[in-house]
Amino acid sequence: MKTRITELxxxxxxxxxxxMAWVAEHHLAAAVSKAGGLGIIGAASAPAEVVREEIRKxxxxxxxxxxxxxxxxxxxxxxxxxxxxxxxxxxxxxGAGNPAKFIRDFKEAGVKVIPVVASVAMAKMMERCGxxxxxxxxxxxxGHIGSSTTMCLVPQVADAVQIPVIAAGGIGDGxxxxxxxxxxxxxxxxxxxxxxxxxxxxxxNYKEKIIKAKDIxxxxxxxxxxxxxxxIRNQMSRKYLRLEKEGAGLDELEHLTLGSLRRAVMDxxxxxxxxxxxxxxxxxxxxxxxxxxxQEIMQEAESLLGKKG
Length: 309
Ligand code: TUI
Hints:
This protein is α/β, with parallel strands linked by helices. It has helices spanning 4-9, 26-34, 48-61, 77-86, 100-108, 120-128, 150-160, 174-182, 192-195, 204-212, 235-245, 250-257, 260-267, 290-305; strands at residues 15-17, 39-42, 66-71, 91-95, 112-117, 134-137, 143-144, 165-168, 187-190, 218-221, 229-232. The strands form two sheets. Strands 1-9-8-6-5-4-3-2 form an eight-stranded parallel β-sheet. A three-stranded antiparallel β-sheet has the order 7-11-10, covered by helices on one side.
């Protein structure tokens, strides 16, 4: 299936893997790219030199394009941006902030820039800054979220900008893919489904929590602090919400969650770890290879969209 995004990125299928903190490392990114999508290394809060190593390891695993996500709340984002330029990465997505100050350097170096946005205003501003596309991410997503749903955000962003739009948030199968295209998207970004990929290094306990999750098993912490984060409900999320309700300060809440995503991803601590996942977790039922996931989604979507049988 050809869209402006497959052409822009030189990929076979318009499926992009989210740049998830701790999860989106070189094995997963390489597997998604090898399967014809766009794999992304999530820089998150990692030191820039760790990101450099991840890029090099991914490049050893595949010649296909691989992107890097720069998380803009990370104070080291400028160093990560420099590493991305030095390593010759061709695609950058950004999240959790405004990437305006980085765009000129990336564009001068021929890097495709695709910010994640959560509003029409941000999408328009990014288009004026000269970005190549935007990811419109609804609040069904896991992790740090905005306030609009995918169903409402994607068509409004698609109407507001000329550049191609990639839909994210609550998309996990061919039906979601087809629906996103009906809303005006030219690609989708998926996170939660890829967390349980065979190639994903995420601890089996975390994968099991996603596979067993039901439709209403996620909740959003941090609405009061301005850092809303969707995750699967557990002891950690309950404690966070209780403290939030009691009026705890930002310092106390940040202390509670310090290292909690790493504990979930690497140690499999599903009690005191933060299990970031989207609402689509209720539909993610098994571990598969990235290739199997992408093939299944494309077959279902093409049939629904009437491209094939
Ligand atoms: O960035 C994400 N999702 C994330 S980042 C992350 S790392 C983290 N770890 C622990 C606690 C908190 C975060 C986990 N998940 N998604 C992309 C995204 N970007 N969603 C929403 C936005 C966004 C929001 C506001 C983008 C731009 C924006 O603009 C505000 C501004 O600065 O004008």
